[in-house]
Amino acid sequence: MDFSELNLAKPIQHAIKRLGYKTATPIQAQAIPPLQAGKDLLGIAQTGTGKTAAFALPILDYLLKNNRRPTAKSARVLVLTPTRELASQIDDSFRDCSKGMRIYRGLVFGGVGQSPQVRTMRRGVDVLTATPGRLLDLMNQRHIRLDKLEVFVLDEADRMLDMGFIHDIRKVMATLPPKRQTLLFSATMPKSIADLAGGLLNDPVTVEVTPQATTVDRIEQKIMFVTKAKKRLLLQNLLEEHPIERALVFTRTKHGADRVAKHLEQNAIRAEAIHGNKSQGARQKALSRFKKSQVRVLVATDIAARGIDVPGVSHVINFDLPNEAENYVHRIGRTARAGAEGIAISFCDVLERPLLRDIQRCIRQVVPIDEEHPFHAEGVAQPRTASKPNNRNYRGRRGKSQKSCGPGGDTCSRPSKPSGSKRRRNKRRGGARQAA
Q1: 3-class SS at 92?
Q2: What is the 8-class DSSP label of residue 183?
């Protein structure tokens, strides 16, 4: 569908042309008309499908057609999102799509001083994009009020719940006026999201553009079996031997991200780490350098799995497999954006094989194995057959202590020494047998 068919206001049509948009993505084509009609909406869409524009364009259209000045300390539209990076990205989208229009925007998140945010909210804004924690802080300090809200957008709802924001979301919801338009977007639809949507939305239109937890078709995926000790060498080899222009590398921990970035820098590969322990300024600087190609590799934890929208990410590399299978979809969705193609490479050691099985079950496909790399570990590729747990405190069926032994970590029973009374009894029996 062409954007000209969507009956958007002329300033928005001009902005769309200036940005180079011509054809609406499936979620945009399906979501914009009911949103223009004032309907609540439940949107289920993977990352990279054009979801932000799917709600930003009709919201701007509504604000232009219902032009009035926001009241002090209030917002006409609230977009609630889980991470600072995603909040900044959404605010950028509203900025780009509203150039030439008198639309007042506010951006509220933690990790930076609150004074500029308080000054912005004094006069009121049309669109407020916020993360839950800082929003509630400013509401409790009476710098923000939401009783005049007209449109509420809950973005990345499943990620919100994963990060433990459900109580904060409910506190925000309790302050909203009953008469409003509500939009909820989520990449997946577990029961917890369905329950949340049931209490938040009023007779919503449901838009689902892709099956739940499926991967983008344009992404070439592969698995590389490697021991944990050689993962950094494998990553270095890939970056040195292959024409990887811009790579996003995911680790499981913050310290792991720092170690990987340091290893790459020591081997003349420009890299930066981004995670929750970094200040907001450091995170923004690293992301900016990555966007400008001043660094070739951005090493991140799952905090960046959603919210980083960087054009031209050719490769996503899962240095560690995610603990939650659905996060695999969000990670690799950072490549193959805006119609491009991409490659997703995942390293897997022997302890991560159960995570790999969960991922393949979640995406309903088997990821091909690449055995050609120089660090391929055949022992990792073959599943272990030991049936007993590798645990020193494991107790067998008869209560005998079992200990780990052998290089494979299998368990084996060691005979326990007989008790003192049993030794004396055996000695008497032995003496009786000799006398006989």
Answers
A1: helix
A2: E
